[in-house]
Amino acid sequence: MLKKLFKWLAGLFILFIAVWSALLFIPKTNDKAYRVKVEKNQGIASVSRKLADDGVIYSRPVLLGTAYLLGVHNRLHTGAYRLPKKVSAWQVLQRLRGGRPDSVTVRIVEGMRFSQMRDIINGTEDIAHETRGWSNEKLLQTIDPNALSSHPEGLFFPDSYEIDAGSSDLQIYKTAYRTMQRHLQAAWDERQSGLPYKNPYELLIMASLIEKETAHEADRRHVAAVFVNRLAIGMRLQTDPTVIYGMGNAYKGRIRKADLRRDTPYNTYTRAGLTPTPIALPGKAALEAAAHPSSAKYLYFVSKMDDTGLSQFSHTLEEHNAAVRKYILKR
């Protein structure tokens, strides 16, 4: 009886190994070549799920189990990998464990500072860091000797950029710069009349202020209206993100009254008009808001401090003070 059971289990085990090997080594023919993207800190679990959902492999458990057996489940390199039209799960694993993607994706988020963009690019693996030791001035001069400003802040468009593995990081900067110039020119050409901007660079500065004040579509054009309306009557912009930018490394997560009174070129509580440069990398929505503020005559706004993150807008100081009491002081 035990001998029969042993034979049965052995046969079952052999069958299991045969099926596992078939699902692992037999290539699956797909409609076309496939590109799988591995995001930062992404493991084999989510990558294999995507491959299975798209029908690239026969069995996700087989690929996943083999990856764990080989110890490569959490050692994937960020980037895009090209898989041939006919590919097995084993070939997929070999491609992923090789650690040399065909391309690398770098994501720059709206509202980041240029210094943060440089940190991200400098820390990206599998690209050539040609510019790592360059000053901001050298980088900008290399890209465009006739740039709108000698200060790079705001001149690079936040987006996801994909380049070939091993390519120079300068390629990312050049693409981001050209992309911003294109979006900025489009916003400038399509701007509504009567705006207080002398040139596209001032529109870019305004867009950066809007970007740092709100990420909500419902608020952007109203925030733009507040700033435009203030400029029109000679009222200071008085926006905290400019103070923070002017504080530089002295900012530790909190603004004190002394910080609001301490004069810097970026302190819009102590100085009238726009800041001398942008204070962040604005996205397309912020550029469009700067070019098309709402027609509302708002002069003030304050965060509602709730889950929505939206703001309360006011026409008068009296209305604004009431909103501050309602949304800020009550907390």
From the structure above, extract its key features:
single chain; 331 residues; mainly alpha; Dna Ligase, domain 1; 3 domains; two-stranded antiparallel sheet; 13 helices; 8 strands; 10% strand
Descriptive account of the structure:
With 331 residues, the chain is mostly helical. It has three domains: 24-98, Endolytic murein transglycosylase (Dna Ligase, domain 1); 103-184, no CATH class; 192-328, no CATH class. 47% of the residues lie in helices and 10% in strands. It has 13 helices and eight strands. A two-stranded antiparallel sheet has the order 1-4. A hairpin with a 7-residue loop joins strand 7 (300-303) and strand 8 (311-314). Helix 7 (170-189) packs across helix 8. The longest helix has 24 residues, at 2-25. The radius of gyration is 27 Å and the shape is elongated. It starts with a helix and ends with a helix. The model has no long low-confidence stretch (mean pLDDT 91).
